[in-house]
């Protein structure tokens, strides 16, 4: 009976309240929208103008085994998002799509510096996206669902604009920008290139996460935490390199892995994306299983819904199929994510107690009543 109540079926996964902390705006555009915006803006470089084919093209091209080649696919989404209207549309649709998948709280990130090709300024980019997220929240509410959107601004590791982007994040902190991130190719661009930026953010009491331990190993995670002061790790999968599991099954954590676990540093894990970039060999061999079993602060995320052909429900489904996770596990990941959000503490607590826990409880209880109904047919 307990198993029955706790079973994570496809339908329940979709309806369960979910939280995503690591989702890129320019990695989650609807293929139809890419095609339409390309037509409107005269962007001629798309490999096809058939939306179905384009969606498949993104997934296949991103399935490259290399982060650098994975990132090349963003040229097409970034290319069609160069106007305020395009940015607002993509942001509104992002909120709607996440909400339709049962996401109740999302932190979505993007790099403002990539959207200046047609003359927008950095503040204009941020304002357009914020307006789009607000519109998406309104449309979602009108459809009877609820989603709360937060924004993270990324600086690109290969560019030298992180100071400016951090200032932008601080300037818009009361308008829904909750934090900062460093994204882009990891190898050759250590986060310590931006030490001044991180010091500035700490002086401002601002939040930041860093993509680390995805395409590069432990030194990158160590730098992100100990030299830069990252509160969360984007991916962080390579932390397993500091964990030894003996043949008998006993586990030894190195000092960095212990530190990450002891301080409850959130790992923004993105299973599908990690397989696509070669950071993990397959879902069934993904380090998330070991890290979850050791009670690291693991969260589950989409990274790029377009490039991964994915959504939160699909990420959860893959994990349920691979590891036999139940609703209890999915609730644990979701509460972990909500605890780790850059939203103020009182609001995080309210979302956990008033939305997430009751949502999972209702799913378990439903099964209880169908059972009773089946035993006592009218
Ligand atoms: O998994 C990732 N690792 C590193 N960088 C990424 C990943 N996914 C997307 N981006 C980069 O972040 C930028 C801002 O959204 C994207 O344009 C892409 O270049
Ligand atoms: Zn990412």
TrEMBL record:
**Annotated site, Important for catalytic activity, chain positions:** 235
Q: Which UniProt keywords apply?
A: Hydrolase, Metal-binding, Nucleotide metabolism, Zinc
> Per its record, how is this protein called by name?
Adenosine deaminase
Q: Give the protein's biological function.
A: Catalyzes the hydrolytic deamination of adenosine and 2-deoxyadenosine.
Q: Where does Zn(2+) bind?
A: 22, 24, 211, 303
Molecular function as annotated in GO: 2'-deoxyadenosine deaminase activity; adenosine deaminase activity; zinc ion binding
Whether Metal-binding counts among this entry's keywords is yes
């Amino acid at each position: 009976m307990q198993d029955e109540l706790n079973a994570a079926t496809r339908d329940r996964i979709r309806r369960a309240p979910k939280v995503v902390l690591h989702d890129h705006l320019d990695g989650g555009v609807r293929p139809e929208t890419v095609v339409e915006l390309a037509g409107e803006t005269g962007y001629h470089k798309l490999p096809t103008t058939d939306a179905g084919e384009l969606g498949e093209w993104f997934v296949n091209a991103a399935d490259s085994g290399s982060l650098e080649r994975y990132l090349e696919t963003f040229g097409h989404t970034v290319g069609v998002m160069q106007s305020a209207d395009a940015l607002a549309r993509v942001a509104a649709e992002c909120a709607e799509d996440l909400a339709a998948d049962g996401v109740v709280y999302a932190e979505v990130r993007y790099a403002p510096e990539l959207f200046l090709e047609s003359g927008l300024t950095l503040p204009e980019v941020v304002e357009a996206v914020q307006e789009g997220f607000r519109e998406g929240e309104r449309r979602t509410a009108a459809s009877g669902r609820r989603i709360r959107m937060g924004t993270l601004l990324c600086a690109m590791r290969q560019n030298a604009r992180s100071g400016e982007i951090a200032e932008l994040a601080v300037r818009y902190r009361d308008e829904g920008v909750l934090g900062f991130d460093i994204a882009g190719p990891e190898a050759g661009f250590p986060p310590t290139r931006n030490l001044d930026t991180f010091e500035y953010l700490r002086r401002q009491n601002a939040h930041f996460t860093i993509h680390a331990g995805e395409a590069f190993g432990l030194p990158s995670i160590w730098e992100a935490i100990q030299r830069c002061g990252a509160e969360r790790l984007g991916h962080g999968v390579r932390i397993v390199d500091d964990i030894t599991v003996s043949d008998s099954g006993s586990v030894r954590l190195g000092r960095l892995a212990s530190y990450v676990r002891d301080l409850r540093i959130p790992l923004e894990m993105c299973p599908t994306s990690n397989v696509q970039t070669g950071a993990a060999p397959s879902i069934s061999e993904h380090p998330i299983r070991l890290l979850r079993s050791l009670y690291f602060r693991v969260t589950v995320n989409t990274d790029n819904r377009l490039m991964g052909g994915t959504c939160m429900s699909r990420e959860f489904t893959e994990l349920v199929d691979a590891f036999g996770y139940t609703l209890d596990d999915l609730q644990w990941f979701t509460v972990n994510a909500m605890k780790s959000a850059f939203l103020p503490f009182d609001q995080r607590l309210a979302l956990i107690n008033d939305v997430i826990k009751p949502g999972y409880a209702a799913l378990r209880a439903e099964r209880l009543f169908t059972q009773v109904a089946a035993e006592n047919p009218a």
